[in-house]
Design brief:
It is a single chain. By secondary structure, the protein is mostly helical. Helix content is 89%, strand content 0%.
Length: 323
């Protein structure tokens, strides 16, 4: 049994290398089979991709034809617009775009100029309307000064008239008083002589009156009547002077007329002053606004020119169309 077992083992040991070689061949065959299947799959995918690429190449050829056509049309359109290339078109659009940045300032300054020009025009119209304001103010001032001088003269005349009147009244009253004193003296002397009677002394020669008493008394009465006649005449003159204020009334009325004229002249002068002040203000505003207009014009001239909004829109449309 041992010998048989040993013999079997020896036989197996001899077959073992052959078996291993057979297993390796089977494994190699399996690997090759798998690899072949993979290669076939790759070939199938490559063939499919090749077909796709062929189709894409055909489409690209069509696109190329279309591109060439578009390029030719673009070149033609550029030439019609005056450009040799799309780059030149872009540069011109860029240049106009840079100029467009200044158009806001140009429009703003232009709007300010238009408003200022309208203001200056209106101010010049008003200045023309006020052209004679200075002369009118000078005439009003002169007329007012003349009227005020006339008023001062009227006041002097009225004052002189009143003073003359008062002086005349005082003079009359003084004379009336003097004559009254004389009348009182005569009355007192007559009473004294009457009391002394015929034995009294003559007031002139200091001799006894005797039968001359009636004559002396009659003389006193005559003097007394003359004095009272003068007093009555002076009182009448005084009454007439007090009542007769025609000259003063005329001077007062003339003064009232001058005062009314001065009031009117002052209103006229105030109006002339206001117009002259307005004229000076208008002229000052014209100067200021004219200076501002010149400044705006200088700013406007500093801005680069050459912007054409219509051309910029057309070139942008052309660029967009070409792109």
């Amino acid at each position: 049994a041992e010998a048989t077992s040993k013999a079997r083992q020896e036989a197996l040991d001899k077959l073992k290398p052959a078996k291993e070689a057979s297993d390796q061949k089977a494994k190699r065959h399996e690997e090759l089979t798998r690899r072949l299947e993979l290669d076939r799959a790759d070939i199938s995918r490559s063939e499919s991709r090749l077909k796709e690429l062929g189709s894409e190449i055909g489409e690209l050829k069509e696109k190329r034809v279309e591109l060439d056509s578009l390029k030719a049309r673009a070149i033609s359109a550029l030439k019609e617009a005056g450009f040799a290339s799309l780059k030149e078109l872009g540069e011109e659009i860029g240049r106009l775009g840079e100029l467009a940045r200044f158009e806001g300032d140009r429009q703003r300054i232009g709007g300010q100029k238009s408003a200022l020009e309208a203001d200056v025009k209106a101010l010049c119209t008003r200045e023309k309307a006020l052209d004679g304001a200075a002369d009118a103010q000078t005439r009003a001032q002169a007329a007012l000064q003349a009227a005020e001088a006339l008023l001062a003269e009227s006041d002097k005349r009225i004052q002189a008239c009143r003073e003359d009147r008062v002086a005349a009244l005082h003079s009359l009253e003084a004379r009336i008083g003097q004559f009254g004193a004389q009348a009182d003296q005569i009355k007192a002397k007559k009473a004294q002589i009457e009391q002394a009677g015929a034995d009294g002394e003559c007031p002139t020669c200091e001799r006894p009156l005797a039968e001359e008493l009636p004559t002396v008394l009659a003389n006193f009465d005559s003097q007394s009547r003359e004095i009272w006649a003068q007093i009555e005449a002076l009182q009448a003159e005084k009454a007439k002077l007090q009542q007769d204020d025609g000259q003063l009334a005329a001077l007062t009325k003339s003064r009232e007329s001058v005062v009314s004229e001065i009031d009117a002249l002052r209103r006229g002068k105030a109006d002339a002053d206001a117009k002259l002040a307005e004229l000076q203000n208008v002229q000052s505003e014209i100067q200021k606004k004219t200076a501002l207009l010149n400044s705006l014009q200088a700013d406007l001239e500093k801005l680069p020119g050459g912007f054409d909004e219509k051309r910029l829109r057309e070139l942008e449309q052309l660029r967009d169309s070409l792109q």
